[in-house]
Amino acid sequence: MTRSLVVSLCLFGFSIAVQAQVPTKPPPLPDIDRARETFKTGKFDEAFEQLKKACAVDPQLQPPRVILAEWFVAAERGKDARLTLERFTAEEPKHPDGYLLNASFAFGEGRFTDAILNCQAALQFAADPRWDATVRKRFLREARLGMVASFERRSDWASVKEQLAGLLNDDPKNGPFRQRLAEATFHTGQPEVAFADFQKVFQDDPATEPAELRIAKLWLAKSDRDQAETWLKKAVSAHGSNPKTHRAYAGFLLDDGNLDAAPLYLAAAVKLDAKARETVTLQALLLRYKKDYAAAEVAFEQLHKDAPGDPFALGNLALVLAESTDEKKRKRAVELAETNVKQNSRSPDAYAVLGYCYYKVSRIDDADQALGTAAGGGQVGLDTAYFLTLVLNEKKKFAEAHKILSEAVTARGPFVYRGEARALLADLAKRLPEKK
Predict the structure, then answer these.
(1) Closest Cα to residue 149, out of 346, 4, 8?
(2) Is 288 within a domain?
(3) Average of pLDDT values for 291-314?
(4) Distances 280 to 105, 260, 283 between C-alpha atoms, Å
(5) Positive or negative CA dihedral for 66, 69, 73, 78?
(6) Under 8 Å CB-to-CB from 155, ≥6 apart: which residues?
(7) Which helix (H) or strand (E) holds 191?
(8) 204 lies in a domain?
(9) Is residue 60 part of a domain?
(10) Pick from 151, 167, 183: which residue ends a domain?
């Protein structure tokens, strides 16, 4: 576990000068590396003393107790981390690093107000004249980044803009900061101003996404698919030689179920950038939408082999195998889906895939439990809604299944099983009790 809201404040290792002759024995570890190795053996007091020596050599490092607290966090010793941080704050009540680390704890636990208050305290104490310019700049940067992340979670876009303006004042050519500022501007109801800002980011760095594509994605995040499509068309028109625009529009059309138009834009992306993983992934997804499960299996198998940790490839491979008439493949689908949940235990999509795979091997109660977890977060994807109704249908809860599926089939968005859902909905309508 590492800090979730601030950039790492120190580097745990230093380069060692290479000598002309091969040394007869390994060079000694730098003090901070030696401290870390000592920490791993459980000798925390000794590690702390070694950290003190390391920090005396390099004043740019964080204070010893702060580093120690972060190591406790990484070792999943939360209580020790908090006790160490509390001791540091008692010893140094005006040191910004204590408040920055406390802010990261609060952010990770969803306590965004606490995170903001700690970052504001860090900003205040950063003004102390005892800090040199380099250290003060680090404090200010980390505190503002923490507030940006926290205000974003609260959708307080005006405050996000204020903190980003401060960051850009110190680092005016920082593309990612300017990009986040444009996103915040969009969310304050100024899409055209945001578009101009995104254009500036793209001009400075053509490797980033075109401005039209950025705006399209923001409209899509707001579930305004009409505006998103308008901007996707602008992106393709203005940047026809950029494969990113064709891939984005192909994916959008695919998710809308437009299997006639989507392949045209995907073909353009293939012509421009055939080997890109994003292109290959879209090709595999198109095969799944077209129910060509044999070809989709081959494609997702290769994607999974190339990146075993990719949950999208893993989940889709499981879903494709679940459609097989081969019992061994359906069993493997369950195993892959279970692995996906272990690796992504907080992902509703992972539980939804597992639920469907359980359903396909007739483990209805297990499917019901997995899909209940998938739906527990509140927002349910369209495919997940279909999986839920399959289980409800098996349990003869026809009215509940009909209600969920009626809403799903009329909604826009990614829905591989839209055709199957419509067929099931028609069947469910016949099973509803007659109105008196």
Answers:
(1) 4
(2) no
(3) 97
(4) 39, 19, 5
(5) negative
(6) 187
(7) helix 191-204
(8) no
(9) yes
(10) 167
Count the residues in the chain.
436
Please give the tally of structural domains in the chain.
2
The last residue of one of the domains, among 167, 191, 220, is: 167
- Domain with residue 98: its CATH number is 1.25.40.10
3-class DSSP string for 117-168: HHHHHHHHHHCCCCCCHHHHHHHHHHHHHHHHHHHHHCCCHHHHHHHHHHHH
Token pair recorded at residue 424: 């099931």
Q: Which of 69, 96, 67 is nearest to 82 (CA)?
A: 69
Please provide the distance, in angstroms rounded to a whole number, between the alpha carbons at the two ends of the chain.
Answer: 59
Domain residue limits at 413: 380-436
Q: Which tokens sit at 380?
A: 């349910």
Residues 6+ apart with CB under 8 A from 126: 96, 136, 139, 140, 143
pLDDT digits (tens, 9 = 90+) for 120-169: 999 999 999 999 999 999 999 999 999 999 999 999 999 999 999 999 99
Cα–Cα distance measured from residue 297 to residue 52, given in angstroms and rounded to the nearest whole number: 56
Residue pair 303/281 in contact (Cβ under 8 Å)? The answer is yes
Structure tokens at 97: 């690093």
